[in-house]
Amino acid sequence: MDYEGQKLAELIFYIIILTFGCIGWVIGYFQEDFTVVFQAWLAGVVLSVILCVPDWPFYNRHPIKWLESVPDRRQHAKSS
Amino acid sequence: MHTVWVRLNAVVFFGLTVLLGLSCMAALSKVGHTLRQRPVVKKLEMRKFRSLKSHGGVDRALLSFDLDVDLTPAFHWNIKQLFVYVVAIYETNGRYNQVVLWDKIVEAGDSKVLKEKNTFIKYPLVDKRGGELRGKEVTLQLQWDHMPITGLLHMDKQPLDTSSKFFLPTEYQ
């Protein structure tokens, strides 16, 4: 995963887990049932693992631009 | 965030932290619930007195009781179960003794209305210090512990002015 991809992955799971958790909490509050909160939270975590942990292609759209490789100094020294 | 394991760790532990926050908010949302909604004990009284004997110097009484209470008001979304128990209170030399005679665990999914008829006590009414039980006035009180999903356990009880009393016989029988 490149650096932009890592940032994106972190943003995605922050939003997913917090959103599922908060919506689940509000529904659970009115249903008077904490298991609703737990299930919503669990769904959020599972979805986040699926979306953010594997190295999907959309996390590799800004590949790191490495510099040109420097020629091997020993070879360079020998030839000159 | 550079390997699968680092990312997995980040997601799982962020998730657990959020769950901790949600649990604490649920606990806070029900602060003060017990002050507003209290179960009412409709009946808790002795039904049949069985015996009062001395066993090795220790007085022991056996009896059965009736109980009628609806515990629904004590439950809310942060309560896992209630531990309910019947306590016999009597006085010795100006101080009060409390002895648990019977208990029951009521989980959130169970029936919350307890109707016990002529139920025999689980634990004998015993004065462990070898004190006198003959002729004592005994009050029966229902007490219960709220065991939350998140948070501290707290206790509530039946008001004493609604409790029933009875006298133990003055001679062993």
UniProtKB/TrEMBL annotation, chain A:
It comes from Fistulifera solaris (Oleaginous diatom). Keywords: Endoplasmic reticulum, Membrane, Transmembrane, Transmembrane helix. It is a multi-pass membrane protein. It holds the Pfam family SPC12. This is Signal peptidase complex subunit 1. It is found in: Endoplasmic reticulum membrane. Belongs to the SPCS1 family. InterPro entries: Spc1/SPCS1. PROSITE patterns: PROKAR_LIPOPROTEIN. The lineage of its organism: Eukaryota, Sar, Stramenopiles, Ochrophyta, Bacillariophyta. GO terms for cellular component: signal peptidase complex. It comes from the Eukaryota. GO terms for biological process: protein targeting to ER; signal peptide processing. Its main location: endoplasmic reticulum. The keyword Membrane applies. Signal peptide: none annotated. The chain crosses the membrane at residues 12-30, 36-59. Component of the signal peptidase complex (SPC) which catalyzes the cleavage of N-terminal signal sequences from nascent proteins as they are translocated into the lumen of the endoplasmic reticulum. Dispensable for SPC enzymatic activity.
Automatic annotation (TrEMBL), chain B:
It is found in: Endoplasmic reticulum membrane. It is a single-pass type II membrane protein. This is Signal peptidase complex subunit 3. GO terms for cellular component: signal peptidase complex. Belongs to the SPCS3 family. Transmembrane segments: none annotated. GO terms for biological process: protein targeting to ER; signal peptide processing. PANTHER family: MICROSOMAL SIGNAL PEPTIDASE 23 KD SUBUNIT SPC22/23, SIGNAL PEPTIDASE COMPLEX SUBUNIT 3. InterPro entries: SPC3. Its main location: endoplasmic reticulum. It holds the Pfam family SPC22. PROSITE patterns: PROKAR_LIPOPROTEIN. Keywords: Endoplasmic reticulum, Membrane, Signal-anchor, Transmembrane, Transmembrane helix.
